[in-house]
Amino acid sequence: MIGTIDIIIAVCYILAIVTIGLWTGTRKKKNGTTTSGEYFLAGKTLHWPMIGLALFATNISCLHLVSLAQSGFDSGLLNGNFEWMAAFTLILLALFFVPFYIRSGVSTLPDFLEKRYNKACRDWLAFISIISAIIIHIAFSFLAGGIVLETLFGINMYVSIIVIAALTGLYTIIGGLKAVVITESIQSIVLITGAIIITFFSWNKVGGWHHVTEILGSQNALEKVSMMRPLGDKSGMSWMAVFFGYPVLGIWYWCADQTIVQRALGAKDENNARAGALFCGFIKILPVFIFVMPGLFAYVLYHSQKLDLSALQHVDQNGQLALNTKGIYTLMITQLVPNGLIGVLVAALLSGLMSQIAGALNSIATLSSFDLYKRFKPATSDKKLVQVGRLSAALALIVSIGLLPLLNQYQSLFEGINDVIAHIAPPITCVFILGVFWGKASAVSAQLTLWIGSFLGAAVYAATKLYPDSFLAGIPFMMMAFYLFCACVLIQVVFSYVYPVQHTAQSRELFWKSLSEPLQSKGWSGLGNYKTLSLLLLLTMAVLYTVFR
């Protein structure tokens, strides 16, 4: 049970984060005012450690702690691919996308699309980015956090969500990106610390790796320790689905999503942005060991009768006794961790929840102000832009809370969020890749690709949910993402020849003339050089995939 000391620790943590966020965001500037550049991009003063930690914190939420543990219990290390494959897309961000965005001087990614293509592309991406931030980064995180807090404290899910939303919104809306990044850096450390604690206690209870493999063998479940599954695997996550489907999701998420890339756009310079992205790539190695493996250990403990999951049992639609594994992480906390440390674990969960929401709110504020409001009122003052950003962030909180009943229908929250991304990402990934690397990609082709591709994604998503026994519903969502991406590439290439590109003086400079061009920058000397770090990260991932293949 949750003790008084644990409640005190959790409450003190929340108050400390809110205080730090407000203090950071309200410190008096030299001229006494906050400019839009300071509010939305932290005045471009961020250094690489803060960028790397903030990228990780914005990505990892309470949803990941809860649902990756659930996936570890259900399918073993398989969903760890979403964490390790991110390293490869972060290398792409560091080598090709970050220097491009910084040199082009854009404040937002829709701003880049207007300069590379046209205003219609900018408007569409701004709209899609706001919608995806509300659903993916905020609503799903709220849902996971609400489930955990209701289980731990017995507080109504919606009451706890509204309180957390109000407190996170307070320092985010007032403080801007600098408040978000500083609090995210702290929250990353707390989150990782909490995850290491639960990993230590579950590992200690298991009794060593030999016992893990022994129990898995007795349950005919040794495939749970494998990251690479054969073609036709019942999980739908074969090696082909991972290597073909993940890049479509990953390039959108890490290289073309405002919520993520905004941290790099606030960098002091190009080298700090590149190093920050690669630093995050190294940190992304950790989740498999401290988020996914505890769920695998819970599976072993359950079958060793060392973990009581009776509280999760329910009767399914077929009248059979089944486990609702969404609550695995919560039960692990209460049964494996001693009082006092439970409060630290709760603080870690709250860190993941608050940092994800804070990052998304700041990006929504930026997109609403720069890419929507200022588009139609270009003479808007900095003060007015900040006000619009704050109002839009507050509205986003309200809308995301209203979406919770709909999203709560997914059995696995982690699969639910990636299912949504798989249908949103393909057209955006397509227009960014072709826009950055192919000079013949035209404005009209990009506009039509975004429109048609988004419609295709929405139609396929609706069809799979309305007709769960259909052919489309039988296609794994990762492969569906790849097929939709291929369709979008075909659409854009064809229309680029039907409507040939007509470059402006600006757009003519907004694509790489060769793959070697972005690598000509010398960078820092020594181990901090972005090329050295990229090679080291690639070698590390190759070794890890060899061990856990």
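[next item in queue]
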Amino acid sequence: MADNDRRWFASYAPGVPHEVVVPDEPLGASLDRAARDFPDRVAVDLLGATTTYAELADLVARGAQVLHDLGVRHGDRVALVQPNSTAHVVGFFAALRLGAVVVEHNPTYSSTELHHQLADSGATVALVWQKAVAAVVAARPGTALRSVVAVDLAADLPRRTRWALRLPVAAARTARAAMRADVPAGIPSWHRLVAAASPLPASHPRPGGEDLALIQYTGGTTGTPKGASLRHRNLVANTVQGQAWTGHARGTETVYATLPFFHAFGLTLGLTYTVRIAATVVAFPRFDAAAVLAAQRRRPGTFLPAVPPMLDRLAAAAEADPRADLTSFRYALSGGMALPAETAARWERATGGLVVEGYGMTETAPVVLGSPLSPARRPGALGLPFPSTDVRVVDPQDPTRDVGHGEQGELLVRGPQVFAGYWQRPEETAEQLLPDGWLRTGDVVRLTDDGFVVLVDRIKEVIVTGGFKVYPSQVEDHLRTMPGVRDVAVVGVPGGDLGEKVVAAVVLDDDASPVDLAAVRAWCAERLAQYAVPRGLVIVPELPRSILGKVLRRVVRDDVLAPPAV
């Protein structure tokens, strides 16, 4: 496809520009503007505890001084190992205010997983949830960590809730155990340090748009995680593109942050974009449908970024609760995995609003494609390129050659949101980021006549059997329609002369009759080529999933290949 063949523009929703202007400014500039223009607007609502934009800006200035006192300087890495909380927001923007680089970590990781990431990034200070302090302390030897600071999640909760946590009853003890943990002597408290600090002087130098802002680790489902390095400009660009796409007016929206900030999807859609439009972010330390419905009664949401399982569980919970009302949600953006048609329909029945799909990668800050927020949305498609974003579909073996019109190939993307490369991994950067700025996504797609990108599968997960390519998603989609099958993952395992053998790992409905390989093969033979029909079947109680609910095919494959337990 020629660079000037931008057929997707014709499918844009009315008013969405083809190009956007990305300001040369640090990401924190959006917080400064929100505090100036909407000082009394609630910036963060954490389970009922509210912080206004003016209060948030003050906490960030104090947090920046705390980090400065701990020796953090421009370019230093600051690790955040926390669930969603007000403290997470403060620590994130405080580090950026100094020109430091935020490194986001999953707070449920083991010490081994954390050690790799902490050692790799060279983080010198870590702001850590109390429950994760033990893992970080165990991971500390051999890293550059000088200071570990403990974050008490309960300190951000409403006063009434904090009081209830002290009650000598079983429910309070359970809640305390879920939120708090003992902290070794000598590790300071983040909240106490911030409360005692003076604000960082306004004259302190700020970072520039080309400075590094964030390292987020990716690739854990396919190999050793590597850090995607994102500049302030990349992150600012995606918030500007997002606002152009949605048309959200500043100071009017309430965004539900049910996705974790330590994930690229949750960080941008739930935090940086929210601050860009001076919205209220209703934050949840973990996803819980009942907690979301309770928050909805207190502070109705208007925009929900989510993954399909979240949408399905919320709609189901609302259907079962006569007090529930989700109709304030005008839009939901679904990402992370394919959105089933029945889930989309269920959500739109529950809300009366629209749910559209989006696509992105950690390497693209993260969004590059979105379905239009209009009746022209295309269920089942990844969407259209964002403003100022170009795409190509190329031969995976030769990314310089575009495939023919409508043919399948690897998706390449280019735009201001594309990352700077992998942290300290020049060879892997060169493999994925081409010299002319095109990023190889590793996804097999096709482009429709009107510019929608449709996913076929991940290149690394394509199965080659008998010389033929089998796309697992296509086999899975068909098998999910088989009576009694609740879910399925299709993988390739060594298959002798075939190269690889197609194997289906199937989860059955609770009341389903037994299913054997012959029945699965007969069902698949109705719609699939013979070489794509599974040659192996494993019945499993559940499928391994990522933090966002995406099936981990690599883990499924390892489990299939594992010898039976003795």
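[queue empty]
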